[in-house]
Design brief:
Blueprint (H helix, E strand, L loop, with lengths): L8 H9 L6 H13 L4 H14 L3 H13 L14 E5 L8 H9 L5 E5 L9 H5 L11 H10 L2 E5 L6 H11 L7 H14 L4 E8 L8 H17 L3 E8 L7 E3 L1 H11 L5 H17 L7 H6 L2 H12 L13 E6 L4 E6 L1 H10 L16 E4 L6 E2 L4 E7 L5 H7 L4 E4 L9 E5 L2
Parallel strand pairs: 1-4, 2-3, 4-5
Antiparallel strand pairs: 5-13, 6-9, 7-11, 8-10, 8-12, 9-11
Helix pairs in contact: 1-3, 2-4, 4-9, 4-10, 5-12, 5-14, 9-10, 15-16
The structure holds uracil (URA).
The site of uracil (URA) has 6 residues, from helix 9.
Subunit structure: Homodimer.
Keywords: Glycosyltransferase, Transferase
Enzyme class: transferase
Length: 430
């Protein structure tokens, strides 16, 4: 005999369609019944569209998140004997911050369980970048992850399929039904995975601007506030930084070149914007872990962060001293006039790097680790005609034309230096 279902999906859809709030038991049932396959994709798609149009209350978002967490395993690092802090970025062009950040924070005795993903489209994936390192392994068992956190403090690895399976199914559905943009659904999607991971504290890097998932700053702020509230309501100390993604972060866009740039930061150098954001996020993470006065810059300068990086890479079978994949072909674009670089749009640079093979169009595609773009200048820099602006890196030259097409109009040079805009716009707390 089939069990009698407690609710009817059509009632739940109607309640949201008509602008009402869905009561907790009905919403929990909806998520659970969808995960079990009882609620059909068509019904969940209608519900997601109703959420996109009518929103959700703070309480509904909390219940939605909780129901997605309950659909899978919940990890715990309680036995580690040290605080755990994670970082999540909503993603951007040249965003390699996790690479220097995780070992930097771990060098202060804090555990950083960084469950990461692969890139799809113009934003890169942390695992793709690290897989440029010969031997490095993204897949760890829960026991290996726990041991590495205990012994080394930092781990960056692939999220197992056991965390929030309801989200996996719903995210794929949203992707094909025009409902990705619903803030309650984005917030519950991201936070269900982070809370299920079992971290004590979380710092969110919510990006706005042309290369960001949320281009509009007000929507990015709303997403940040929603996620901070969700984390806090679930007992995870959460803060967010609202950061500018109108310009690529750093000088490297790709995979191997982003690893190289991250190692420069860990060696006490690197581009100013990458250092600034790494330091800002590390301070937030360490403050949540009870070390508000940690001297983060000192750990970058004196080799402690680099030691933690090497230990983290070696623990996952990577060789931190091995040569990184290098491009076979390059193409350098130069300035056609004297002046100041007044703009470099993140999105076209991200698309160009993707077309060069640094990113993938379908989840099953491989990435070319040596492909990408090296910038030689950034907005605000003065240039002379003929000076190199950026170099395309490719396995062969067959993809250069398509990449250059994406870059048409993506940078501007003018007579006056542009106004400087802050990289970190706002800090959002509970
Ligand atoms: N990233 C996620 O994990 N979920 C979303 O809904 C959007 C971005």
């Amino acid at each position: 005999m089939t069990a009698v279902e407690a609710f009817d999906a059509v009632d739940v859809i109607r309640a949201k369609r008509d602008g009402g709030a869905v009561a907790e038991p009905a919403l929990r049932w909806m998520v659970d019944a969808y995960t079990r396959g009882y609620v059909a994709d068509s019904q969940m798609a209608a519900f997601a569209m109703a959420v996109l149009l009518n929103g959700m209350t703070r309480d509904e978002i909390r219940v939605m998140t909780d129901a997605m967490i309950a659909s899978g395993e919940r990890m715990s690092f309680a036995g580690l004997g040290k605080p755990t802090v994670d970082k999540h970025s909503t993603g951007g062009v040249g965003d390699k911050i996790t690479l220097p950040l995780a070992p930097l924070v771990a060098s202060f005795g804090v555990a950083v369980p960084q469950l990461s993903g692969r890139g799809l489209g113009h934003t890169g994936g942390t695992l793709d970048k690290l897989e440029s390192i010969p031997g490095w392994r993204a897949a760890l068992s829960n026991d290996e992850m726990f041991a590495q956190l205990r012994d080394m403090g930092a781990v960056i690895c692939a999220a197992g399929s056991g965390l929030a399976p309801a989200d996996k199914k719903l995210y794929a559905l949203r992707d094909v039904t025009g409902t990705v943009e619903a803030i309650p659904l984005i917030a519950s999607s991201i936070m269900s995975k982070k809370i299920a991971e079992g971290t004590d504290a979380l710092v969110l890097d919510v990006k706005f601007g042309s290369g960001a998932f949320m281009q509009d700053v007000d929507r990015a702020r709303e997403l940040a506030r929603t996620m901070v509230a969700l984390g806090t309501d679930s007992g995870v100390s959460t803060t967010a930084l609202l950061t500018d993604m109108n310009t690529p972060l750093g000088l490297a866009i790709g995979n191997a070149n982003e690893v190289r740039e991250s190692v420069e930061v860990l060696a006490g150098g690197g581009p100013a914007d990458v250092v600034e954001l790494t330091v800002a996020l590390a301070r937030e993470m360490l403050a949540l872990a009870g070390q508000p006065d940690a001297d983060v810059e000192a750990a970058l300068q004196d080799g402690r962060a680099m030691d933690a990086w090497r230990a983290m890479i070696i623990a996952q079978d990577g060789d931190p001293d091995a040569a990184l994949p290098a491009p076979n072909e390059t193409h350098t674009v130069t300035a056609t006039e004297d002046g100041f670089v007044t703009g470099m749009e993140a999105l076209p640079f991200g698309i160009a790097a993707w077309r060069l093979g640094a990113g993938r169009a379908r989840a099953q595609d491989p990435v070319l680790h040596a492909a990408g773009i090296d910038l030689h200048v950034k907005p605000g820099d003065q240039v002379a005609a003929g000076q190199p602006l950026f170099t395309l890196l490719g396995e062969d030259d067959s993809r250069f034309d398509r990449a250059l097409e994406a870059l048409d109009g993506a940078w501007t040079i003018g007579p006056d230096a542009p106004e400087r805009t802050p990289l970190v716009l706002e800090r959002i707390t509970a």
